[in-house]
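Quick one: structure tokens for this chain, please?
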Amino acid sequence: MEYITGYELTSYYGHILCQNVSTYIPWDDIDKNNADILLERVHTAGGLVGIAHPFSIGAPISNGMQFSMEIHNHHLLDFIEIINNAHPMIPDNYKGILWWENLLFNGFRIAPVSGMDFHRPCDRSDFFTTYIEIPDTFKNNTLAEQFTNAITNCKTCVTKGPIIKTNLTNNSLFIELLSKEDGFLNEIDCKDPLYLKVKTASEETVVSIDKNLRTDMNELISSTDSVIVIELYKDKIEWQNLIAIGAPVFL
């Protein structure tokens, strides 16, 4: 069995996560006004670094839960836990999603991931899960190497249903919705209507979907856009009905 080493570096002023790290990283000189110091140390140790549940309720309810450190260089972030299954979509998780999207639209390549925070037995049937895309050239690599490749290239999908897979060719965006068994959408229970929200920094559009979809992006993409974000909703477009966020599509 393979597993990824890592731990929560600190729970002061927010939770900083490090993955692919198995050595101790000093944090006792933590500075609320400069998170970059700790982020850089994780990279020096050869790891990946990210922020967990950045907008979860903090003091006085839960000291240190909400991320309150100042980041000066967001290029240091490899991933953001945009959804934590132990915390509600409103008022917590949706703010993390919007923060991540805003950073993407401002030129920072940061992978989306989900978290669970297992503190007691619970039903995981409706939990969000993170899937990574593994290219053929990495099929025989270690799990740690596959994970690093997926995070650094933002090839992650956060979902509690279909897995969103995309391909952009000549401004035509092909979107596939795959089941966990690698089937196509017609193998998924689609009794409820599904809606894709396709977003760039300048525009967004909503498309009703019941099969694999090819969407002409010419009218959506402007010359200043650099990335596309894809959100999938069930029944209606409200945060509580979000079921998946695909890997960002870089233009």
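The chain is about 15% helix and 30% strand.
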